[in-house]
Each structure stands twice: as C-alpha cells, then as structure tokens.
Specification:
Layout lengths: L20 E5 L5 E6 H9 L3 E12 L4 E10 L15 H7 L13 E4 L14 E4 L1 H7 L4 H4 L12 H8 L14
Parallel strand pairs: 1-4
Antiparallel strand pairs: 1-2, 3-4, 5-6
C-alpha cells in the first residue's frame, strides 16, 4: 500500500507537504471534482487516470513508486450531465467574497441582501454579499443609497471553476491553469 498524507504523522519516512487533495480532470480537460489523495492513488493504480502534474514528492510502497498527484486526468471521457447553477447559500457567498465584508473589509461571518428582502429584494447572487455582523446590523433594512455606502464590486454568480476550488477550501496554486473558465 502506498503511504499517504494521513500516514505522515506516524511514518517518519514520509515527507511532509504531500498534497492531501487532487484536482480531477475529464479526458477533455474540464475540471470534474477534487478528490482525496487516497482516491487519486486508487485511480492511477487501476489505470483510470494518469498524473498530469505533480509537486515533486514521491509516494512509496514496497514495490511501487509514483509521483504525488496534484492534477489527474481521466484516461476515458466521462459524460457529465448539465450542472445546475450553484445556489447563493451562506457558505458559497462567503467563499465568493473570500470571507471579507464588502462594506468595511474585515472578516465576514454572515450575508447581507444589498436591496433588503423587506423591500422586495430577492435572494439571488446579484443581491447577496458577505458582511460582518457589525455592518450587517448597521445597514439593517436600509438601502445603500440611504446610508451613502457603495459596493466595491458588483455581485455576480461565481464561475463553476471557482466553486470547484472552493468546495474543498482554497484551491492549490498548481490548479489555476486548469480552472480557467
């Protein structure tokens, strides 16, 4: 069995820094999902995927060595049904806005409707932003115009590739060429 990132704490022969997540691409090059290192090793060992990019670390077993995969590509094309749009949930809005309050720039922990729902605002990507509790409380059910505030950017729905990286935390830097929309 190849040693993985989970074995690093107990096995002194495994080098720290082996990636715990791997980006999986379809045979066409489109991003499919993020898989664990264990799943990535299984896909490579069964011949279902090949290592497209590695970070230089090597995984060892008694008889096999392989580069630690950062990006994998499937050997056969997998048909993926049309994806539904990602809904604007608290988690996805905070990911889109990088957990920063759009009003003051501090850490955000809640979401705010730019045009308040009590005044007919809808719960959609173009009307929801990340906010800290203080700013959200100060804004309450008023519009930005009434407060004299301005947004630093126009809110919009994220690209799917942003949500792939965001689904498992922050995307690895090596993934950026493959996540371009």
């Amino acid at each position: 069995m190849l040693t993985t990132a989970a074995d690093q704490a107990t096995d002194p022969d495994v080098r720290p820094g082996v990636p715990a997540r791997t980006l999986l691409l379809n045979a066409s090059g489109e991003p499919l999902c993020v898989v664990t290192l264990h799943r990535a090793v299984v896909l490579v060992m069964t011949g279902k995927a090949t290592v497209l990019e590695s970070d230089g670390h090597v995984l060892h077993s008694a008889r096999v060595q392989m580069p630690a995969p950062v990006v994998l590509v499937l050997t056969r094309y997998v048909h993926v049904p049309a994806r539904r749009p990602v809904p604007p949930t608290r988690r996805t809005v905070l990911q889109r806005d990088d957990h920063r309050c759009v009003y003051c720039g501090s850490g955000a922990d809640t979401v705010d409707h730019v045009h308040p729902r009590s005044r007919g605002g809808r719960h959609e990507w173009t009307n929801v932003v990340a906010a800290c509790r203080r700013c959200n409380h100060r804004k309450a059910d008023r519009t930005l115009h009434e407060l004299g505030w301005q947004l630093p950017f126009l809110p919009r729905a994220p690209r799917w590739s942003v949500t792939v990286g965001g689904a498992a935390g922050h995307a690895e830097p090596a993934w950026s060429p493959y996540l371009v929309a």
